[in-house]
User: What shape does this take?
Amino acid sequence: MYCPSCGVAVTPGSSYCNYCGEKLSGAKSDSISKSPEVRPETLVGAMVFAFVFGLGAITILMGVMKAVLHLELGVVLAFTLLSFLVMLLLEGVFIRLLLSRKRGADEASDTGLLKWQATRSLDAAQARGLPEAMPSVTEHTTRAFDPIYQERKPK
Assistant: This one.
């Protein structure tokens, strides 16, 4: 997770950026708004079960309505068509859940790539902004003692 203000990496779940102090609006809402994770294998299994169970139930109900209830063929076909449409609607919901998981995974990978590119562009901008590389404390200390060391050095 990155701060939207300064681009520094922050720990997930933080409310504020440790570097610039910006309030992170998505910290709490991301954990609440996420739907529970459903594995694709579970969705495919539910789709197969709903289809097989639905066809079996429709077939049995058709037989019961014709043989036991002695309903006319038109009423039996209307009920069968209605039941089949409900089953197709349920299958459509499962397919939509399966495709939204795939799309969410693609967007997450795209977002990660965009964050990485933004971080690289920030690093490049900071490197261009400084006229020269800042020496480390050790180099500065060593350079401070260089003239003294050279004066004491016997010739």
Summary: Residues 54 and 87 are 6 Å apart (CA to CA). The first helix runs from residue 26 to 33. Helices lie at 26-33, 40-67, 73-129, 137-152. The two ends are 59 Å apart (CA to CA).
